[in-house]
Amino acid sequence: MTVSLTNFRSLGGYPVANGHIRDGLLFRGGQLDDFSGNQINYLQRDLEITRIIDFRSLDERKQFPDSLWQPVEYQPIDVLIDAKKNGVSIDGMIDNAGDITDVMLATYEQLVVSDSAREGYHQFLEELIEKPEPTFFHCFAGKDRTGVAAAIILKAAGADQQLIFDDYLRTNDARKAANAKIIQQLAPKLSVAQQHSLAQALVVEPDYLQRFFDTVHQKYGSFDGYLTTGLRLPADFSEKLRNLYVQ
């Protein structure tokens, strides 16, 4: 059975160094609020997902709680809890509509250097190594906090840069209908200029992810330096990841 889920996809099958990502283990997407029984059954029974990692803030989780099932393991990890200004939630997008590009670029820097991002991604990646089980990781739209998490996994697994950016940019097609619905719902409360800015905020740009990688190299010298110094992961993390998730 195939069920429609906005911006949801598996990393399984992506080619990486010495193989490809194993199927059935790593899934990315947006929040799971107000899911139907068919959608939950698809995640639980068809995909056999046993762990959900939620990168959203406490306010986002309270406003749009995930639809969960038993006995799925649910772990909230707010990777931007100490970022005072960001554009990754609907409220943040609207509040920062006037300078959303600058805010998003700064957000991607924070996803490298902030304490909450370094601690949050450390926890997330350690979980993947300690318990390799079918995992769905997400944020609000599945594009920024989740996009960076997917990029880290793919880079560590040995994917080339083109594939990493291709996966990241798939979000723009995958969210077209959902983004249009959000803008339509909020239109009565927003000016035309705000609607235009919100439309910009709801998509990803190559420059955003490039800013993440540029900041990694500026701060830590290399991606491996980011893993070991920035995220405090063991020196053999990438090797362990590949052993578990690449075939």
From TrEMBL:
SUPFAM superfamilies tied to this protein: (Phosphotyrosine protein) phosphatases II (SSF52799)
GO molecular function, one term: phosphoprotein phosphatase activity
Gene3D superfamilies: Protein tyrosine phosphatase superfamily
Pfam families per the UniProt record, alphabetical: Y_phosphatase3
Signal peptide: none
Membership in a protein family: Belongs to the protein-tyrosine phosphatase family.
Protein name as catalogued: Aldo/keto reductase family protein
